[in-house]
């Protein structure tokens, strides 16, 4: 007869994020001792790490924090939404964020090499996967700096942690700068710009868009005399889609983001946007 209760199973699941059957088997093997069962789950999970290597990690969360003039954001992935919303996975993701802040890492390789409690972060990732029974990945890390930095996290489902995260930095000061930075961060979450300014758009991409616009206009039978104006108009439309400062502001589409920032007396310096799995 089992020497543990339903409450014991629930507590160990919440502690590890492991599945029901894995928890029950571990408690059976440990004769109901939760600490020994935790060790069983960890050991079996480590043994299964190689088998999980090829699995897809399309779920997870985005975590972000601003420390003074620096904003840091990470995306941590797992296999299922059940694990993504589990306390142990959320705790681990916060540990990853702490390491990203402490290390100053701007890429995943540097973050994985950073030592936490005397071991590289890569080992903590493997251990987290062992406890959770799923493959766990650190997919991305971003770091932005500015006089004012806003971090915005958005839940696409009330049952899950944040799936979308934004960091937005500006040069400026005062309440107007803080408000503008936050408003534009919300805008970025919804409107998914790719570049901050037109200068960041690769020249070959601009030329490709220009060529496509011209070929399309010719195929539509547009008059030769009007081609230049039509092409430039369509290229402007491309910039409005891809470039943050060119986009119409979500709260007032009569203004561009550049105008909103100008009214607040600030200048955009950097942004980052993550969406889990995208």
UniProtKB/TrEMBL annotation:
<keyword id="KW-0251">Elongation factor</keyword>
<feature type="region of interest" description="Involved in Mg(2+) ion dislocation from EF-Tu">
    <location>
        <begin position="80"/>
        <end position="83"/>
    </location>
</feature>
<dbReference type="GO" id="GO:0005737">
    <property type="term" value="C:cytoplasm"/>
</dbReference>
<dbReference type="InterPro" id="IPR018101">
    <property type="entry name" value="Transl_elong_Ts_CS"/>
</dbReference>
<comment type="similarity">
    <text>Belongs to the EF-Ts family.</text>
</comment>
<dbReference type="GO" id="GO:0003746">
    <property type="term" value="F:translation elongation factor activity"/>
</dbReference>
<keyword id="KW-0963">Cytoplasm</keyword>
<dbReference type="InterPro" id="IPR036402">
    <property type="entry name" value="EF-Ts_dimer_sf"/>
</dbReference>
<dbReference type="InterPro" id="IPR014039">
    <property type="entry name" value="Transl_elong_EFTs/EF1B_dimer"/>
</dbReference>
<dbReference type="InterPro" id="IPR001816">
    <property type="entry name" value="Transl_elong_EFTs/EF1B"/>
</dbReference>
<dbReference type="Pfam" id="PF00889">
    <property type="entry name" value="EF_TS"/>
</dbReference>
<keyword id="KW-0648">Protein biosynthesis</keyword>
<comment type="function">
    <text>Associates with the EF-Tu.GDP complex and induces the exchange of GDP to GTP. It remains bound to the aminoacyl-tRNA.EF-Tu.GTP complex up to the GTP hydrolysis stage on the ribosome.</text>
</comment>
<dbReference type="InterPro" id="IPR009060">
    <property type="entry name" value="UBA-like_sf"/>
</dbReference>
<protein>
    <recommendedName>
        <fullName>Elongation factor Ts</fullName>
    </recommendedName>
</protein>
<feature type="domain" description="Translation elongation factor EFTs/EF1B dimerisation">
    <location>
        <begin position="71"/>
        <end position="277"/>
    </location>
</feature>
